[in-house]
Write a structure and sequence with these properties.
It is built from ten helices and no strands. The chain is an all-alpha fold and 217 residues long. The chain folds into two domains: 119 residues, no CATH class; 51 residues. The longest helix has 52 residues. Keywords: Coiled coil.
């Protein structure tokens, strides 16, 4: 293919022997340079670092096409190296902190136990709870109204008892003290006047008619 392209570029007026020799020389140089570039690309892939892979991506397309299989293998190798490094770091961490694995296991068991306990708790319907609350409130309201009515009736009975006691007390006084004369009665007034001593001025009292008769005489 390269020979055909070279012949088309050089032309048919050149001798075939000279063309073949020139083509062989050019092809040899091209193959040598291509092999060098492919080898360098494979070295970049084998390194597997981020910088090397970026340099590989900047290579010409033909070089990357020739190393396509190696590129995929290098990517897998790079991933494998990363995983191995992570595993080694994790093992070192476990060796340094042996209780961490135990704590992780205990946390896992605790989580499972908590989930089981939560699943064992019976679920309560909020609608039923609200209905029971309303029913309890109504019953309590009825009880309060009944107690209020009973207290009102008790107050009425107390007032009636007080009135009856007042009437009985008045009747009792009237029955017990009716034999005694009241202090403001006429009988008591006459008794007081009769028991009082006569005043001296009242003994010398002379009616006015007698005084007038004595004056004319």
């Amino acid at each position: 293919m390269l020979e055909q392209a070279f012949n088309a570029a050089v032309g048919s007026d050149i001798d075939g022997t000279e063309v073949a020799a020139a083509a062989a020389q050019v092809l040899s140089r091209f193959r040598a340079g291509l092999e060098v570039q492919v080898a360098e690309a494979q070295k970049l892939l084998e390194a597997g670092g981020a910088e090397e892979l970026q340099r590989y991506d900047a290579l010409p397309g033909m070089i990357k096409q020739l190393c396509a299989g190696s590129r995929a293998a290098a990517g897998l190798r790079a991933k494998l190296v990363v995983l191995e490094q992570e595993e080694e770091a994790w093992l070192q961490l476990q060796a340094k902190y042996p209780d961490a694995a135990l704590a992780a296991a205990l946390d896992s068991k605790r989580t499972v136990a908590d989930e089981a306990a939560a699943a064992a708790v019976p679920r309560i319907c909020l609608d039923d709870v609200c209905a029971e609350q309303r029913r309890a409130d109504m019953q309590l309201g009825f009880q309060v109204e009944a107690l209020s009515t009973m207290l009102d009736k008790a107050e009425q009975l107390v007032e009636q008892a007080q009135q009856a006691c007042s009437l009985l007390q008045a009747e009792y006084h009237r029955e017990n003290f009716q034999a005694y004369v009241h202090v403001n009665s006429p009988q008591m007034l006459v008794k007081i006047l009769s028991q009082a001593a006569p005043v001296a001025s009242m003994l010398d009292f002379v009616p006015a008619s007698q005084l007038s008769q004595q004056a004319h005489a």
